[in-house]
Amino acid sequence: MSDTNATAAVDQSLFPTYARYPMALVKGDGSWLWDDKGNKYLDFMSGIAVTNLGHAPKQIKAALVKQLDELWHVSNLFHIPNQAEAGKLITDNSCADAVFFCNSGAEANEAAIKLARRYNQKVLNNGRFEIITFEQSFHGRTLATLTATGQAKVKEGFAPLPAGFKTIPLNDLAALEAAVSDQTAAIMLEMVQAEGGIYPVDPDYMKELVALCEKQGILLIVDEIQTGMGRTGKLFAYEHYGIEPDIFTMAKGLGSGFPVGAMAAKEKLREGFTAGSHGSTFGGTPIATAVVKATLETIVGENLSARAAQKGEYLISQLREKLAGNDFVHEVRGLGLLVGIACAEPISDILNAAQERGLIVISAGPNVIRLLPNLLVTDEEIDIAVALLVELLEAKRHVVKS
Questions:
Q1: Which three-class secondary structure state does DSSP give residue 359?
Q2: Which residues lie closer than 8 Å to 302 by C-beta, 6 or more apart?
């Protein structure tokens, strides 16, 4: 049986929920990956903004191995020192005062939605429940978070969807004002719409949105699942806008590849989640929070957010310079090391060609090449990726359909 057929046979035991590439990656080190045939790849996907410290970072491995020798799981019915220490690292380095640990970004966003509703209904006693979100956003794949997501394709076949969500265009103040009502509990958004095409929120719009929240007593939820952990050049993307959300969520890079998520909020919201109101069997285990501690200590201690800002500026400037005049490329946009190359036509063939040449990148919608190198990426690695992408995109010059 051929390698391809063998892999397909094994995958018959799995639901076909992923359109998988025809390859199996078996080893990683820093910015590099190897498949089961020994081929080497430069990774500019980072597990979709997960391995922010590169593959198999030694300091994270050391913390994980140490914890594996001590204690794996007890229950959240007991005090977990690692969890408290990891929570303090988050609150010490953000605008939050309290943290809830879970297992994924979708769970973190579920917790944020539940907290916003419960705070309004049980603490403020105002009965508010509606959450306003934005077109092209992505917040997860549970029933509530896919309803919050502003992309129709993730909702297909899952009706009836939960009530209490409104989705409006981003950066449209009139649409926002029209959507707000006396039932609005919270507004939820990403500072950069990553899955939706790498669209940063307009700063002036963000100011108006925050002012509206303050005037109407509406909670502001920021989804930092993909933008957090230094990815955009700040520890959290909301810092670029000079704002302080009431609630924000984390996952992906929070665990350097270990599955963990978290929801953080301001002090006033502590009353919304009292004992028994929410929980998670595996949220914040000794193992998971040992990894969170090591990850945050590394990012903060080595000032990797600033490094991401510097490397992102270099990556974007190189792409803009070398792609100038290419009529297939509409725009290079992004923030820090969350970068998109917006093209005139679908780019799936470019992704496949890059992979065949040893570079792993991903899309952000059909026409946008998304670049997510790790925060420790070098200029030399950026140069390799840029040279190959420029070559592939140059081949598309003047082939845009009228």
A1: strand
A2: none
- The shares of helix, strand and coil residues in the chain, as percent rounded to the nearest 5, are 40, 20, 40
Enumerate residues 6+ apart whose C-beta is below 8 A from 41.
Answer: 25, 32, 33, 34, 35, 355, 358, 359, 360
Query: 87, 131, 89: which is closest to 223 by C-alpha?
Result: 131
* Sign of the dihedral through C-alpha 167, 168, 173, 178: negative
Measured distance CA(110)–CA(124) in Å, rounded: 20
Report residue 348 as tokens.
Answer: 């799936």
CB 333 within 8 A of CB 319: no
Q: Which fold has domain 58-301?
A: Aspartate Aminotransferase; domain 2 (3.40.640)
The string of pLDDT tens digits covering residues 343-383 is: 999 999 999 999 999 999 999 999 999 999 999 999 999 99
- Decide if 187 contacts 213 (C-beta within 8 A): yes
Mean pLDDT of the chain: 96
- Residue that has been written with the tokens 């990012």 in this structure: 299
Task: Provide the whole-model pTM.
Answer: 0.96
The domain locations on the chain are: 30-56+304-394, 58-301
Gyration radius of the chain's alpha carbons:
21
Number of helical H runs and strand E runs in the chain: 12, 17
For domain 30-56+304-394, the question of CATH label 3.20.20.140 is answered with no
The dihedral over CA atoms of 383, 360, 248, 175, expressed in degrees to the nearest 10, equals 90
Phi and psi for 91 in degrees, rounded to 5? -70, -35
Separation of alpha carbons 132 and 148, rounded Å: 8
Q: For 135, which DSSP code?
A: T
Q: Does the N-terminal peptide bond of residue 160 adopt cis geometry, omega within 30 degrees of 0?
A: yes
